[in-house]
């Protein structure tokens, strides 16, 4: 078993196209001196899972997710958990849901 923090990330409602059409990713975050937060995870996702870096702006805006993306941790809205400051725990399931629809 790898050392680190075991989590699952899910990308739904169209976001999966940015991640090679893979909705669910089992991830082992490397051990770190500081606790892993959702803010740090976003940049890790951008660097390690996002397939087309040129389309990063469809996932992130600045240091957070772009407007129209809902983030849930274990089926709870991240806004109730501290947003970017939420400290990730082992076996967390973090879901990114797009509410943006083309016309």
Written overview of the protein:
- This protein is mainly β.
- Helix content is 11%, strand content 30%.
- The chain has one helix at 38-48; strands at 5-12, 24-29, 60-61, 64-65, 69-73, 76-77, 93-98.
- The strands form 2 sheets. The protein has a 5-stranded mixed β-sheet, with no helix packed on it.
- The longest helix is centred in the middle third of the chain and has 11 residues, at 38-48.
- The mean pLDDT is 93.
Strand content: 25-35%
Largest sheet: 5 strands, mixed
Helix percentage range: 10-25%
Sheet with most strands: strand arrangement: 2-1-7-5-6
Q: What is the succession of H and E elements?
A: EEHEEEEE
Low-pLDDT ranges? none
- How many helices? The count is 1
Mean pLDDT across the residues is 93
Short description:
It contains one helix and seven strands.
What topology emerges from the helices and strands here?
Elements: E1 5-12, E2 24-29, H1 38-48, E3 60-61, E4 64-65, E5 69-73, E6 76-77, E7 93-98
Parallel strand pairs: 1-7
Antiparallel strand pairs: 1-2, 3-4, 5-6, 5-7
Task: Provide key terms for this protein.
103 residues; 5-stranded mixed β-sheet; two-stranded antiparallel ribbon; 1 helix
